[in-house]
Design a protein that fits this description.
Enolase-like, domain 1, mainly alpha, 3 strands
């Protein structure tokens, strides 16, 4: 199964940077999530935008829809944990 690791550098969540892999041909920044965080959105609300601007491909391991769902779920988990530590 492919994962969608999220890398987050946090001083506060408003300055968070989120990176995704397996959501396009190269790793990419989740700009919509970062914008939502900059606007003060809660972690779960910001993570709902994780699949925006991506071009996840379907293959024998996962459908595009599953990859998009996984990006949202794992981003929610990462942001929630980061918020608890901030």
């Amino acid at each position: 199964m492919n994962a969608v690791p999220v890398r987050l550098r946090v001083a506060s969540l408003q300055g968070g940077q989120v990176s995704l892999v397996n959501m396009g041909s190269t790793p990419l920044r989740a700009a919509a999530v970062e914008a939502a965080l900059a606007g003060g959105a809660a972690p779960a609300d910001a993570a709902a935008h994780a699949a925006e601007g991506t071009s996840a491909a379907a293959d024998i391991r996962a459908t595009r829809e599953y990859r998009e769902h996984l990006a949202r779920v794992l981003t929610t988990r990462a942001l929630t944990e980061a918020a608890a530590r901030a």
